[in-house]
Specification:
Layout: H1 13-16, H2 20-27, E1 31-36, H3 53-64, E2 68-73, E3 88-92, H4 98-105, E4 113-116, H5 118-122, H6 124-127, E5 133-136, H7 143-147, E6 155-157, E7 185-187, E8 190-191, H8 202-206, E9 211-212, H9 215-223, E10 230-232, H10 241-253, E11 259-263, H11 271-279, E12 282-290, H12 294-299, H13 306-318, E13 322-329, H14 338-348, E14 353-358, H15 366-373, H16 399-413, H17 416-424, H18 428-448
Parallel strand pairs: 1-2, 1-3, 3-4, 4-5, 5-6, 7-10, 10-11, 11-12, 12-13, 13-14
Antiparallel strand pairs: 8-9
Helix pairs in contact: 9-10, 10-11, 14-16, 16-18, 17-18
The structure holds cobalamin (B12) and iron/sulfur cluster.
């Protein structure tokens, strides 16, 4: 006789212990709210409304499961917290948004709050103080179980997604206030980076193994978007050149153009690939030049030379691809002159826009371990960990000197004079970007001019 036809009574006993909450979960789908906190007031990125993709991927997975999902990006539209009701509140934190994230968490009963994101992954024992659970690493694999209460351990370890094509295309309509036709849409085509620079937390979070989506899946996502511009937010868009070629070939075929990406300067050695990037409509490359000081480049473990940087600038410009040059200042071999040398270099080589980040010991990085061991980190106020504030004692100059020289260099690069001179030479786009940079820097300086966080640092 079939066993199921005569179930012993004891098999039903577990049902008697079902709580109301379990029953509710069993019968109903849940309401989940995911929140990306705003950057601190002192951050030049606080006005940028490009969302992190993590909450959007997770929200899409949970929505596809049948749950009701709302995403709030505080830079776009903050919720009215007094009215917000949900079964689970998920908060995504970077180091620079962690404090705000914890503030938000405290507005809700702890048993409803789940925290994830890069900072939570690097310091889960800190984040767990504010949440019932913290997810470390990529969360696609575990999010349903965490939300539905099938995983109950306080710190849940996510697994890197092996086949990125299995992920749904992120649904931005879940973000409250996100425009129907956004001016730019972020697309992630890969995860991980084979390099291991000393200041970067990407490999700690996503690993050194480079995983990428199929070109067909990426093209399908791009074609479904109602936008004119894309930002490939991969940390290293060209790390696997043959896959990039296949993708670019399909973009050319499908007439998808007008995009920006992040690359290392070694890509410029491959002239054929650069030609394809230009033909496929690459308008801007964000390049991690990091330093014009060879000793600092070596200390950052960047594996690139000044000659390679200069060669890359020429190669991109020859193809009319604009350059957003990213520098990190304050390394052990940087002195009072390094910031000025960087500025002179950027002006001389006509880098279109620049970002001068101050070296920041992000938890989990080699730089953090090194400076922490030497007791040179003087504040753990995470709001200041945004690359625009000095938070450690540099070796060859004072914290104030480093802070002041970076501000002065920014002010000079983004001066009104330089943006007008571009206008007179009919470089309209660059002139507008410089002008925007000018406004942002001025606001930033107004808020930070007293350098109060450095008041007691010598
Ligand atoms: C696009 C981008 C930006 C954009 C928009 C960012 C934004 N909205 O904040 C811009 C250019 C404005 C920007 C600015 C900055 N950025 Co940025 N940025 C990125 C980038 C390249 C991609 C982000 C992304 O979409 N990733 C892909 C998704 C899938 O990953 P994810 O969001 O982390 O989500 C996964 C997990 O974290 C987890 N998860 C995430 N949220 C949640 C929530 C819950 C509840 C759970 C359970 C799980 C979970 O699951 C997700 C899926 O697997 C990352 C690098 C990277 N690879 O992530 C850097 C990165 C996030 N940025 C970084 C930094 C430092 C900054 C800046 C401070 C300065 C800078 N270097 O430019 C500013 C600060 C911005 C701010 N908000 O205050 C660092 C953060 C490091 C850290 N420890 O915090 C990163 C990791 C780069 C690096 N080199 O280390 N950035
Ligand atoms: S800085 Fe760029 S190249 Fe270096 S590890 Fe991070 S993502 Fe990779």
């Amino acid at each position: 006789m079939e066993r199921s036809a005569h179930k012993p009574l004891c098999e039903f006993i577990p049902w008697l212990f079902f709580s109301h909450r379990d029953l509710f979960r069993f019968l109903h789908f849940m309401k989940i709210v995911l929140i990306e906190p705003r950057g601190s007031e002192a951050n030049v990125y606080s006005k940028i409304s490009m969302p992190l993709l993590g909450p959007v991927y997770l929200g899409t997975i949970l929505r596809n499961r049948g749950h009701e999902v709302e995403i709030y990006n505080e830079n776009i539209q903050a919720p009215d917290y007094s009215q917000l009701r949900a079964d689970v509140i998920g908060i995504s934190i970077l180091t620079s948004t962690a404090k705000r994230g914890y503030e938000i968490a405290k507005k809700f009963p702890k048993e409803k709050v789940v925290i994830g994101g890069v900072h939570a992954s690097l310091l889960p024992t800190e984040a767990i103080e504010f949440a019932r659970q913290v997810v470390v690493g990529e969360a696609e694999d575990v999010i349903i179980d965490v939300v539905e209460g099938k995983r109950t351990e306080p710190i849940v370890y996510g697994k890197p997604v092996e086949n990125l094509d299995t992920l749904p295309h992120p649904d931005f309509s879940l973000i409250k206030g996100f425009p129907v036709s956004p001016s730019v849409v972020p697309v992630s085509t890969s995860r991980g980076c084979p390099f291991d620079c000393s200041f970067c937390s990407v490999t700690k979070m996503f690993g050194r193994e480079y995983r990428f989506r199929s070109a067909e899946d990426i093209i399908a996502e791009m074609k479904s978007r109602n936008t004119k511009q894309f930002f490939f937010c991969d940390d290293n868009f060209t790390a696997h050149t043959s896959r990039t070629r296949i993708l670019l070939g399909l973009m050319i075929k499908n007439r998808l153009s007008n995009w920006a990406c992040q690359v290392r300067c070694d890509v410029a050695k491959d002239g054929g690939l650069l030609d394809m990037m230009a033909k496929a409509g690459c308008r801007v490359v964000c390049v991690g030049f990091e330093s014009v000081n060879p000793m600092t480049l070596a200390a950052y473990r960047k594996k690139q030379t000044i000659e390679e940087i200069i060669g890359a600038i020429r190669s991109f410009h020859r193809r009319h691809i604009k350059i957003h040059g990213m520098f990190v200042l304050g390394g052990e071999d940087d002195n009072k002159n390094t910031v000025w040398e960087t500025l002179k270099f950027a002006v001389k080589h006509r880098i279109d826009t620049i970002q001068m980040m101050i070296l920041t010991p992000l938890p989990g990085t080699k730089v953090y371990e090194f400076l922490e061991a030497q007791k040179r980190i003087f504040t753990k106020d995470w709001n200041l960990y945004d690359g625009q504030h000095v938070v450690f004692k540099p070796k060859l100059l004072s914290a104030k000197e480093l802070q002041q020289s970076v501000i002065r260099a920014y002010v000079k690069f983004y001066s009104l004079y330089r943006s007008f001179s571009l206008l007179l030479r009919f470089h309209y786009r660059n002139a507008i970007f410089r002008f925007m940079g000018h406004v942002i820097i001025k606001q930033w300086v107004r808020r930070n001019h007293n350098m109060r966080w450095l008041a007691h640092v010598n």
